[in-house]
């Protein structure tokens, strides 16, 4: 559901504007999954393909001569690399000598490239070697290639899967791919729609590998959800997730189409059952059955118009060295009361929601992350030997574009969390993820170069004051500070006069004051945005936003959590703001524990 590559209606790849228009027309209002239209490279269309990149933002370079649209000459690949817009995705199924030549050309033209449907450990080793030498290359392997030892023998598929599993760390993404259809073709099976194959098989196979100790749950979430979103810039899908019974032994029904190509399933059960698939809040699959046309509404969208500039996934080496703190594993949910929590020991036959940190009601099913996030454990968050790649500043604009190009924070005072909706916070957190990724990769994201912040603190502060200053400096701006002892306040200057004066010096003011409501009063005299950094026992909105962001990053979601606030709730300005933000999420239980005299204000 995170985006599939769409071809023309006869199954071949689109190579010209008429075919692409046909694909888009067929998908509009009729697709049950989100999709991205790609243009196929041929020896005859380098210039024409580049002209179609707006409508079909992925270039697919096929070396498979059984496909009508393919390339025969490396000179053609060179021409495509030369003319295809920088930053737009290039995918190829090159292998062997074709892969080596394609990687060389990608290096010469400084192109990022994604290798799809990798089927040999030798190709993975070459990809990993190229990555270690600085080439921006990512790859995917079909789930079924990893389990080829359980499939019928077909040309080009090695049934010795041990070498592939030994190179798991080099694999960025898992995919479904064309392998089920190729097996059907080799078996001369008719009357089965290849598009329905594998839905009962892919996740069960992977979770069987988890039970066998060959994979971890976080590997599945990362490679199936977060990494594709991050690499191809796929947008988040609100309220979209998959629920599974992770520990249940599964026997695929004898009537299932999957047994026509994966007969081994009837004798060797798997450990996982897909319970439900929800897309944008609507159930599209439940307990082995798709909702039919009478009850299902085609909700698939063309994602090409929101596709971000191609990014990079963490290398397999990075994944092998450990997941980042922001990476959600698998979130378990008690039957009948779904909720997302951090990875935890599984009880017998739990219902598990495979969720990206941004999708399971954000929908936090994730960043995934993620991908992804978005999103959104990025390669910058995982310490390793992979090549650091700068994040383009326009990724922030891309985030805004996904939210309708409406910025609720632009030139606004930030005085109370009551000013903002949950959707506003989602946007803020998405931007924060992108900024964090950029800063951790490059040390700085100079989008505020030439801007000045006044840090005005009438109370002692270390973390809040330092964090505001560090943020401004990391974004390329400058800071000056003032407090009640070193400013004209010591000579009797009023807060209003101080704010008026500093507003003429700075582009933004952060203010901490011991008197509740003082920041709101000062905002009336500010001609630049004013941020409440704490006003007595009133509110501390920025701290509460950071706390909520951290909960999402660590646990994957705020929805469905039980959160207990303990201590002096009457005078704790941070908990006042935090409780108001958290209460905007779904199915959250807030417990207050304090002496009666220090209880939470109404």
UniProtKB/TrEMBL annotation:
It comes from the Eukaryota. This is Carbamoyl-phosphate synthase. It comes from Linderina macrospora.
């Amino acid at each position: 559901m995170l985006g599939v590559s769409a071809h023309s209606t006869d199954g071949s790849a689109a190579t010209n504007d008429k075919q692409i228009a046909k694909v888009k027309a067929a998908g509009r209002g009729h697709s049950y999954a989100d999709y991205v239209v790609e243009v196929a490279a041929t020896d005859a269309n380098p210039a024409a393909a580049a002209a179609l990149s707006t409508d079909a933002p992925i270039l697919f370079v096929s070396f498979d001569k059984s496909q009508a649209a393919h390339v025969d000459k490396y000179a053609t690949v060179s021409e495509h690399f030369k003319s295809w817009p920088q930053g737009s995705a290039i995918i190829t199924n090159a292998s062997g000598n074709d892969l080596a030549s394609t990687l060389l050309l990608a290096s010469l033209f400084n192109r990022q490239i994604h290798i799809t449907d990798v089927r040999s450990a030798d190709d993975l080793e070459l990809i990993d070697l190229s990555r270690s030498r600085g080439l921006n290359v990512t790859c995917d392997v079909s789930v079924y290639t990893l389990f080829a030892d359980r499939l019928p023998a077909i040309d080009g598929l090695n049934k010795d899967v041990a070498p592939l599993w030994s190179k798991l760390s080099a694999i960025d993404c898992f995919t479904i791919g064309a392998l089920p259809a190729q097996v059907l073709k080799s078996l001369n099976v008719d009357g089965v729609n290849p598009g329905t194959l594998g839905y009962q098989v892919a996740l069960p196979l992977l979770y069987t590998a988890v039970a066998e100790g060959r994979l971890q749950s976080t590997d599945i979430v990362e490679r199936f959800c977060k990494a594709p979103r991050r690499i191809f810039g796929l947008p988040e899908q609100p309220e979209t997730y998959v629920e599974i019974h992770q520990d249940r032994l599964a026997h695929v029904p004898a009537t299932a189409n999957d047994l026509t190509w994966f007969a081994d399933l009837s004798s060797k059960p798997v450990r996982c059952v897909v319970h439900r698939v929800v897309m944008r809040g609507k159930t599209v699959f439940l307990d082995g059955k798709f909702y039919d046309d009478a009850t299902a509404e085609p909700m698939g969208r063309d994602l090409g118009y929101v596709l971000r500039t191609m990014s990079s996934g963490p290398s397999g080496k990075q994944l092998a060295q450990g997941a980042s703190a922001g990476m959600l594993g698998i979130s378990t949910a008690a039957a009948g009361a779904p909720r997302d929590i951090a990875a935890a020991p599984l009880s017998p036959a739990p219902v598990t929601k495979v969720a990206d940190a941004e999708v399971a009601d954000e929908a936090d099913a994730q960043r995934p992350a993620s991908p992804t996030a978005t999103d959104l454990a990025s390669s910058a968050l995982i310490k390793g030997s992979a090549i650091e790649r700068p994040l383009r500043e326009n990724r922030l604009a891309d985030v805004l574009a996904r939210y309708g190009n409406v910025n609720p924070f632009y030139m606004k005072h930030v005085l109370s969390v009551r000013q903002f909706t949950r959707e506003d916070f989602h946007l803020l957190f998405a931007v924060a993820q992108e900024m964090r990724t950029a800063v951790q990769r490059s040390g700085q994201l100079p989008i505020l170069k030439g801007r000045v912040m006044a840090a005005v603190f009438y109370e002692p502060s270390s973390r809040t004051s330092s964090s505001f200053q560090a943020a401004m400096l990391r974004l390329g701006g400058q800071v000056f500070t003032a407090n009640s002892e070193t400013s004209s306040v010591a000579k009797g200057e009023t807060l209003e006069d101080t704010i008026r004066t500093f507003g003429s010096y700075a582009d933004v003011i952060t203010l901490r004051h011991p008197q509740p409501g003082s920041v709101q009063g000062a905002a009336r005299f500010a001609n630049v945005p004013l941020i409440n950094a704490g006003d007595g026992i009133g509110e501390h909105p920025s701290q509460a936003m950071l706390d909520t962001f951290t909960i999402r990053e660590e646990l994957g979601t705020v929805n469905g959590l039980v959160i207990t606030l303990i201590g002096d709730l009457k005078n704790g300005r941070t908990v006042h703001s935090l409780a108001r933000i958290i209460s905007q999420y779904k199915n959250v239980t807030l417990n207050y524990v304090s002496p009666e005299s220090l209880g939470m204000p109404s």
